[in-house]
Design a protein that fits this description.
Layout lengths: L10 E4 L6 H31 L6 H18 L2 H9 L4 E3 H34 L4 H4 L2 H16 L3 H8 L8 E2 L6 H6 L6 H34 L4 H29 L8 H25 L2 H19 L1
Parallel strand pairs: 1-3
Antiparallel strand pairs: 1-2
Helix pairs in contact: 1-2, 1-3, 1-11, 1-12, 2-4, 2-6, 2-11, 4-6, 4-9, 4-10, 9-10, 10-11
Length: 314
């Protein structure tokens, strides 16, 4: 294709959810309330783990990191989405779009790495209880968490660099509320099947490897739990693992729909709804799942609440 004389795109238009002004106002209010509750809920878990020394164990260190990740994750999409709803132009600069793309996917990959680590922690605690304190100590746990973050943020720079080198000469309208690789590649002036295939393979490998690792871990956990003679012991083990499995189901169920085959022909509306679910709804639900099913976490949150009330009364 002869690209001479063709203007280069310097910004993209994120259509988000085209609707009437009244509906947009309602969506803005719902998103804003959801955003505040998500930050408060996950922030409360981070504070509870940090302030309560009884929670300075690998399981709660992982949970605190997961909650911190959810705060970061929602900040990659919702603030810009709210700005987009209130804006007349709905524009995002070329650079800002790819920064959002990078951080959105890096946070998502971090989550796909933290969830198997949490499953591995539960496997060790239930299947290897005598060796668990020696194998999974706080130092090793923090090193593994750091490895998850670093690895996730190193996965997408190269694919994103190659996408930025593609010619974008118009149209520049993205039928989405986030800079997603599928809609972005569709706007390129030349086909890029190699980049498209590499992104799909990378996403598929990360999702399937981590998902089957979690599945294998919990298969071993389930087998071990069924051999526990105490009914109370089985109930406690199922309760601990049930919270994590609920989060895994919500997250992996939605991302498999989206990123196993990015060009599978998913309608734009379906893409936006699924993306909204795993990027905004699940971070809101997760702290409820973990705090409501965990006695230690509820006790720590009550303690923080009481301390806050006492400090305010003074």
């Amino acid at each position: 294709m002869n690209m001479s004389g063709v203007s280069t795109v310097t910004e993209f238009i994120l259509l988000s959810f085209p609707c009437s002004r009244e509906v947009q106002v309602i969506l803005v209010m719902l998103l804003f309330v959801s955003y505040i509750l998500t930050v408060m809920g996950n922030g409360a878990i981070v504070c509870a783990v940090k302030l309560d020394r009884r929670l300075h164990t690998p399981m709660y260190i992982l949970l605190a990191n997961f909650s911190f990740l959810e705060i970061c994750y929602i900040n990659t999409t919702v603030p810009n989405m709210l700005k987009n709803f209130l804006s007349e132009t709905k524009a995002i600069s070329f650079t800002a779009c790819f920064f959002q793309f990078y951080f959105f996917f890096s946070m998502g990959i971090t989550e796909t790495l933290l969830l198997p680590l949490m499953a591995f922690d539960r496997y060790l605690a239930i299947c290897q209880p005598l060796h668990y304190p020696i194998i999974m100590n706080n130092h090793l746990c923090m090193n593994l968490v750091a490895l998850c973050w670093v690895t996730a943020f190193l996965c997408y720079p190269i694919p994103i660099y190659f996408i930025t080198q593609l010619p974008f000469c118009g149209p520049n309208t993205i039928d989405h509320f986030v800079c997603d690789p599928g809609p972005l590649l569709a706007l390129s002036c030349i086909p890029a099947p190699g980049i498209e295939l590499s992104c799909s393979i990378l996403s598929s490998l990360i999702i399937f490897i981590t998902f089957f690792f979690i599945l294998g871990s919990y298969t071993l956990v389930l087998r071990a739990v069924l051999h526990v003679p105490s009914v109370a012991g089985r109930r406690k083990a199922f309760s601990t693992c049930g919270s994590h499995l609920a989060v895994v189901s919500l997250f992996y169920g939605s991302i498999m729909v989206m990123y196993i085959s990015p060009t599978s022909g998913n309608p734009g509306g379906t893409q936006k709804i699924v993306t909204l679910f795993y990027s905004s709804v699940t971070p809101l639900i997760n702290p409820l799942i973990y705090s409501l099913r965990n006695k230690d976490m509820k006790a720590a949150l009550r303690k923080i609440h009481m301390c806050t009330e006492i400090s305010q009364s003074k």
